[in-house]
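Predict both folds.
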Amino acid sequence: MLKVGLTGGIGSGKSTIAEIFKVLGVRVFDADRAAKSIMNDNAGLREQIIQAFGHGAYSNGLLNRKYIADIVFNNPYRLEQLNALVHPAAIQAAEDWMLQQHAPYVIKEAALLFEAGSAGHLDVIIGVFAPQPLRIKRVMDRDNISRQDVMARMGRQVDDSIKMRLCDFVIVNDEQQLVLPQVVNLHKELLKKATDE
């Protein structure tokens, strides 16, 4: 079974691409959603987060996301500290999930595949590319935040020009080229690659 990564910068539309793969019958692991769940459900990780960030990190038994965000948002060291706790648990959760799947290939969707060090666990990486001005507009519209806030988030991710060069395949989601034919063609190629392995 091929282990496929799907990544792209914030606002690139990788979640939309993941949904198209799901419609085609491909199982998709949402690493970002899983990480949020793990921070609530994994007792060992909860304890580590409380030790690192204080008891305010949890409220009514759930991660206090605003409290954590206020600490890590403008502090690269504290963000790295949080990521060092969460990423290994999230990578393991994806590995465990993949072992339970029976399909020609499965997809792990993650914004920080390269940044988290999980790309090495995968056979193929798909990048989703969109021009930066379009990505900024999408995120401003979606999250109702300022351009400055979007740029700050982008600054914490590997530059898209570098990220796309690290990928085996790139889907262009620029609202000029149709994405559906790109995904369908790639699906066929991945099925063929999986049977050739």
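Second protein follows, with its predicted structure tokens after the sequence.
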Amino acid sequence: MADLPLLELGPDPRERGRIHGSTLADAIRDNIETYLARFEAAGADRPTILKQSEGWLDFIRNDNGEYAEEMAAIAEASGVSLTEIAMLNARYEITYLAFGAEVRAADTRLEQEGCTSFGLLPEATANGHTILCQNWDWLANVQGRTFIQRVRRGASPEEGKPDFIGFSEAGIVGSKMGVNAAGIGLCVNGLVTPRDGTTGMRKPFHVRCKEILDAWRFDQALLPVVQTDRTASSNYLIGHRDGEILDIEATPEHCAYLTPTDGLVVHANHLVKETRVTSQMERIAPNTLYRGPRAERLLRRHLGSVDRAVIEEVIRDHFSAPAAICRHPDPALPSAKRVVTVAAILLDLDERILYATDGPPCEAPFQAFPLYTEQTRSDAA
């Protein structure tokens, strides 16, 4: 496996977008075609998706001007349309509304996201650090078209928004997994409910993720999730290096909250705490029902001494392969529909280091990306 691309970025959103777009232009174009093919597999043609994306572009411009400015610079530098970049940045809402349609059609021929995430408080880890971790299972064609960004904006609140190190897909602003200068970290999982798409346009998922890592305080990091209703359901695992973790099951109209038990909280892709709306991902991806409990059981055997070796054993687990914690493509399905663990992400919130694999963790080693390069590359747990 190759090293993941690392972009060194600064406080100016247009300059960030220019570097992003010019450096990753080929990967951005590939991601556009990958998502258009996935939407077509769900029954939506290219003109329909791009028309929806124009609406999302207008919404983002009004909701977060800095985000829209960075999108515009990515589009210009990569030589693609701003509408196509808006499609990538609203792809979560577009994708998960398509998943809902597949649930209603009982279409089990399409593989779905299979993320497994967990958080560990200091009492659970061998070195007393707060750790977030996940396998990000997604479209196999996205693998090799992701990147790491180290963004320098401020090491203190007086200097500006916090520096952060994060993982994202080429063409998407911000990061959906990462840790910032305040020691606030984020991992995410997809959810599907029958209420998805019923609340109209709301702040997109990827904009919320960026705003979480823009926060200096833990309460400020929770606000982008809970302040407004959502278009599509999603799960946010948010931690702080001072030893706090909160998991938020966010459906369009409700939020339910999970906190660690004995220092551990685990989540997959079905609702665990929320009972006011029906969980539906398991109808098309029943593997979610065992991935979370299995990861929790494997981790609980080592509570108080969880280290990198334990974490790697869990995220490499192949029970019920290929639909396992460590996900591999099903060769029986067409290329556009295959899912793989695109990356495993481990966040040491104390040291503010992001560890990532380029592909399934059984095949690719963790690469270390410290927020501040003077940090030592010590073990994360």
